[in-house]
Amino acid sequence: MELTAENLTRAFKALGHPTRLAILEWLKEPTSFPPQDQPAEQVGVCLKHIQARAGVSQSTASQLMATLQQAGLVTCTRVGQWSHYRRDEAGIAAVAEAVQLRV
């Protein structure tokens, strides 16, 4: 997957926020979050668990995750009323590859 300059800029902006960067690191180990009804390895981590670990409001957590999703760094799966997030390893790899090619 080749990133446009606009998409790469969006990814850099998303990674430039310390809480979003921390969330991406936390999502490397989804089992480090509290147990969920659905296995985190399959559907991702529920937003409420991300919110609790980040110590932010629900709306702030939603905004943080929306930015990461728009940057192509996480994916979202809806389970009932809950949103679950996981890292988009292909998107992250594409950003890393684009950086290597451009620097």
Automatic annotation (TrEMBL):
Domain HTH arsR-type: start-end pairs: 1-103
* Pfam family name, one: HTH_IclR
Question: Which protein is depicted?
Answer: Winged helix-turn-helix domain-containing protein
UniProt-listed SUPFAM superfamilies: Winged helix' DNA-binding domain
- Report the domain of life of the source organism: Bacteria
Q: What is the lineage of its organism?
A: Bacteria, Bacillati, Actinomycetota, Actinomycetes, Propionibacteriales
* Species the sequence originates in: Microlunatus spumicola
List UniProt keywords, sorted A-Z.
Answer: DNA-binding, Transcription, Transcription regulation
Looking up PANTHER family in the UniProt record yields: TRANSCRIPTIONAL REGULATOR, ARSR FAMILY, TRANSCRIPTIONAL REPRESSOR SDPR
